[in-house]
Each structure stands twice: as C-alpha cells, then as structure tokens.
Amino acid sequence: MNFSSRKIELAVEQIARLPGIGKKTALRLVLHLLRRPALQTEDLSAALLDLRTNTTFCDECHTISDTNICNICSSPKRDKSVICIVEDVRDVMAIENTGGYNGVYHVLGGLISPMDGIGPSDLTIDSLLEKMESGEINEVIFALNTTMEGDTTNFYLYRKIKDFDATLTTIARGIAVGDELEFADEVTLGRSIQHRIPYEQSLPK
Questions:
Q1: Is residue 129 in some structural domain?
Q2: What is the per-residue pLDDT across 124-166, written as a single tens digit (0 to 9) for each?
Q3: SS3 at position 101
Q4: Do the domain assignments include residue 48?
C-alpha cells in the first residue's frame, strides 16, 4: 500500500495493530479523522491516553476500574456473600447488562491454557482462596466460557474450593458449548444465571 504522506502511513500502521482491523480499514479511519474537526481527534487522543494511564484494577474483584475499589464492590446494595467467577471485564459487563445479578464478581484475568503458557499462578486464584478462607462467602457461581479452557479452569477451581462451606453453582447451559459470554444475548445470559445449577451436576458422569 503506497501512501502520499509518511504521517498517514504511521497512523495506519498503529491503528492496524488493533485486533480485527486491517490496513484498508485503518486507512478509512485515518482519513475520516482528518476530515473531522481537529477537536474530535484531540478528544479521542486524550481519552485513549487517560484510559492507558489512569485505569487500574479493583483491589477486591480485579476488574478494570477507575478507582482502587470498583463501583460494584463498593455498592452497599450488592450481596458480597455471592461471588460470580468470570474470565475478564467483558464478562462482567455482559452479566451486568442483564440486570439480573446482585452479587459481586471475581475476575480471573484469563483461563488456564497450557498451550498458551497460562497456568494457575498467572490468574487471581490465590485472591479467590483468601476470600473463601474468610468464611463470608455463601455461594460461588462458575461463569466461565463453555470452552475446553473454561471447563478446565472451572474444574481446577472446583477442586480447590469444594471443601469450603459454600454452595458451588454454574450457569445453566442456555449458553451453548463453545460460546463466549460476551456474545450471548442478554435474555439467554440472564436466564442462565437465574437458573444456575449445582456445579456437580455439570460434571461428566
């Protein structure tokens, strides 16, 4: 791809590094920004810089947050005795959009995947065990994606926490095997959470 401007070329190269964006799409975005008022580009740049430098992770649930304790964990309306285990912030957002869950979350930050070099020590499992040891957790909901990595991680966590005095459940299989939570429609996901089942029932016989 030949460019009339080195500045356009550099901008296209950077935008094309984003997932799902090729160089042709990146070029359209760059040319669109050039046609818009300069203030819009400046606002975009400022928002991206603020995102990169001022976001943090919640000390309690490990989701991406603007403050040390996210607005979910700090809300007095949430039932902190119920924890929903998810992979990342996209799953938190998907479940929150259903409006049908009132507990808190525990974000693992990934899934166990030996093929990708991700083991238990790379996830926030130690923090989860500390919560369980507090004796204040009544229910743990496994809400990981229904993939091989998700099922492996679920079973690993189950083995780690099954002896604690808490009910262990999993979302109902309204989510098809291989599906990711962020792509499930809100009604299906909401029903899967509301009609969760004991985790042991999901294990192969």
A1: yes
A2: 999 999 999 999 999 999 999 888 899 999 999 999 999 999 9
A3: coil
A4: yes
